[in-house]
Amino acid sequence: MLKDRFGREISYLRFSVTERCNFRCAYCSSYKDDAIAKEPPLEDIEFILKGVRTLGFKKVRITGGEPLLRSDIVEIVRIASNVGFEEIVLTTNAYRLKDLAKDLKEAKLTRLNISLDSLRRDVFSQITTIDKLDDVISGIEESIKVGLIPIKINTVLLKGINEEDIVPIANLTKNENIIVRFIELMPVKGNPFFERHFMAFKKAIEILEKEYTLKKIEDSNHEVANYYQIEGFKGKVGFIASISQHFCSSCNRLRLTSTYKIYPCLFSTINIDIKDAVKNRDFELLRSKFESAVFVKPAGHGEIKIGSKEFIENMRELGG
Ligand code: SAM
């Protein structure tokens, strides 16, 4: 297992397997034409997954762009399972999930994270610029039906846009083992959304506490969220405070972009290119690239404020 300079064991890889996306979420990256968006071929993904598993990584998250747009997505999950990852998770907008949930489960996907910022059709369309809320809901229902549980729902907190959705989305945890996580908006290069719509997680807690009593659940290792249970509800709600209360000291992850670059920290432009290692199927070079990435992983990203110079370069390439 790789260990960084600060004693953190690095065992979790987030891998953006495509830059393509069928949503155009207002707070995400500026969008490239999908025709020129990058994605590694399946053979490269197989080499990478085998390699990083050998280096001691236990958990892989498949993200993007929208990973379910890849026609070989089930095969990618199967490869991750065959090479022995203990946890294989996937982040999706759920638009294509209804048709794919069963095959993903059979390929041994462990769990899903589904992005859902509003339960109101007009607001959902305003944020994503696509009128597909019904498909997302069907995807969630199908995933529960095939046993891809517990499902995690990620909701980005957007001041002036989705405050009214906080209680209804938390209500999804009432009867199902669903975990809703409210996520603080992060700054993305060239996108003014952060300045206008950032909402601290404490505001969301305030809104929920007007309706419900929240009981704190003790943190487990490497959890990025603070979790609570609403009295009498089956699931739980969490808050990911990447900005106002970051969790760098327990960060155990590296990110691999759809363009073959390892990013040791989401908010740093430091990156290590592994293209040569992958194209030449050179495992020793791959190992040394990952070791370097772990070595340069910063202690943390410090404080990020409105107007900050620290921002995410390309959310879709990085995978969130
Ligand atoms: N297409 C997939 C999806 O929608 O979940 C995976 C990729 S998306 C980039 C991964 C996650 O990043 C989503 O939950 C999305 O809401 C989140 N995200 C994108 N831009 C963000 C931002 N500026 N701040 C916080 N989260 C963001």
From TrEMBL:
UniProt GO molecular function: 4 iron, 4 sulfur cluster binding; cyclic pyranopterin monophosphate synthase activity; GTP 3',8'-cyclase activity; GTP binding; metal ion binding
CDD domains registered for this protein in UniProt: Radical_SAM, Twitch_MoaA
Radical SAM core domain ranges (all copies): 5-223
Keyword GTP-binding annotated: yes
Leading EC class: lyase
Superkingdom of source: Bacteria
Cofactors demanded by this protein: [4Fe-4S] cluster
Entry's EC annotation: 4.1.99.22
Protein's GO biological process: Mo-molybdopterin cofactor biosynthetic process
Pfam families from the UniProt entry: Mob_synth_C, Radical_SAM
Keyword tags: 4Fe-4S, GTP-binding, Iron, Iron-sulfur, Lyase, Metal-binding, Molybdenum cofactor biosynthesis, Nucleotide-binding, S-adenosyl-L-methionine
Catalyzed reactions per annotation: GTP + AH2 + S-adenosyl-L-methionine = (8S)-3',8-cyclo-7,8-dihydroguanosine 5'-triphosphate + 5'-deoxyadenosine + L-methionine + A + H(+)
InterPro entries: Aldolase_TIM, Elp3/MiaA/NifB-like_rSAM, MoaA, MoaA-like, MoaA_NifB_PqqE_Fe-S-bd_CS, MoaA_twitch, MoCo_biosynth_MoaA/MoaC, rSAM
Designated name of the protein: GTP 3',8-cyclase
Organism: Caldisericum exile
Gene, per the UniProt record: moaA
